[in-house]
Amino acid sequence: MESAAQIGEKLSGKQKFDFKRALEEIRELHGRGTELISVYVPPNKQVSDAAAYLRGEYSQSSNIKSQSTRKAVMGAIQSILSRLKYYKRPPANGVVFFVGEVPKIGDQTRMVQYVLEPPEPITTFLYRCDSQFYLDPLLDMLEEKKSYGLIVIDRSEATLGLLKGKRVQVIKNIQSLVPSKHRMGGQSALRFERLIEIAAHEFFTKVADTATDALLNTKDLQGILIGGPGPTKDYFNESKYLHHELQKKVIGTFDTGYTDEYGLRELVERAKEKLEDLDLMREKRNMQRLFEEIRKPDGGLSAYGEDQVRRNLVLGAVDVLLLSEGLRKHRVAAECGSCGWKSTVTVEKVPDEVKCPKCGSQAEIKSDVDIIDEFYEVADRMGTRVELISTDSEEGEMLITAFGGIAAILRFRTGG
Ligand code: ZN
């Protein structure tokens, strides 16, 4: 088996990164023909049903005209069937198989097999045979699932919603009983003004109470966005009508044209940049801390580049390890069987063979580890916090281009 990822229900940054990396690898694979098999087994599917379905596909595939494709498809299905036998029932989130023959050199092919347990439940059983593996449902799972509370409000209406990942859910629409000014009739202007204010206050209180009911216990609520066409949204925010726990989470107010469901969508659109910024802010903060140290005359508490960071890391001198998500390198250990020569190097691509520089015979590749995995492991041992930095910000881009994707903020200087 080429690779497998065991993903728990809640993904840590590292697990998520591993899962993403596995999908990236799988996405690159192409079959010569329509012969790559993807099977999604949801948690509630009987393993025997899934197997029966696959046996059906197996017998159907005996009709495939091209001999090589037929052989490949049948081989892949058989392999999945034999793997299914290990399961009494599907894992908590179901299981996904990607199996097939991909071209090697010339006419040769190699069999690839991936068994993945997804981070979220699979919803439907799916069998697909194509020239590429089918990844869409898994890619969707990688989307951010953070939640934001949404409130669009003016004096006549308010709508509450929840933004989850990219989906906007309407929670409730509330119509206000605040009389509109043109109904004034014969009442005294002053008295009418007062009635309006009382009604408005009641309306805002009702909106806030609804928000408390709907949002206070929402898990992982990242923040609250408030929108609306006029000054009411700012008044509502500044007068702190919301429960204090929710009020703390208000990210800001934004102009929208509407206060209905459409207004919720407008609000998300308007706040988009701000939300993206929040994600990047943490990364930027870490990078800026690094730059501050670097700017100090003696280099402060900074280290960068693979060698320097590695030296400091093993000494326990690294406080925060900054690794770029753009890093694509391997740590390869080679050993010569004839003369005992040993070496561990970092390479972009694992060589097919290594010649011993001492005696010239063929050295054996003893291990090949993704450099991010390797650094993670050492950091873990030394109690160092690791921050994965995307390449989406200018600072993140600098980490990869200027520092080779590896930098550190130190606990103390080692002179290393
Ligand atoms: Zn040798």
What does this structure look like?
By secondary structure, the chain is α+β, with helices and mostly antiparallel strands. It folds into three domains: about 5-140, eRF1 domain 1 (Translation, Eukaryotic Peptide Chain Release Factor Subunit 1, Chain A, 2-Layer Sandwich); about 145-185 and about 190-275, eRF1 domain 2 (Nucleotidyltransferase, domain 5), CATH 3.30.420; about 285-330 and about 365-410, Ribosomal protein L30/S12 (60s Ribosomal Protein L30, Chain: A), CATH 3.30.1330. Helices cover about 40% and strands about 30% of the residues. The chain is built from eleven helices and 18 strands. The chain has helices at about 15-25, 45-60, 65-85, 135-140, 190-215, 230-240, 245, 260-295, 305-315, 370-380, 395-405; strands spanning about 5, 35-40, 95-105, 110-115, 125-130, 145-155, 155-165, 165-175, 220-230, 250-255, 300-305, 320-325, 330-335, 340-345, 355, 360-370, 385-390, 405-410. The strands form four sheets. The protein has a five-stranded mixed beta sheet with strand order 1-4-3-2-5, with helices on both faces. It has a five-stranded mixed beta sheet with strand order 8-7-6-9-10, with helices on both faces. Helix 2 (about 45-60) packs antiparallel against helix 3. The longest helix has about 35 residues, at about 260-295. It is flat and about 105 Å long. The chain starts with a strand and ends in a 6-residue tail after the last strand. The model is unreliable at about 1-10 (pLDDT under 50). Zinc ion binds next to loops.
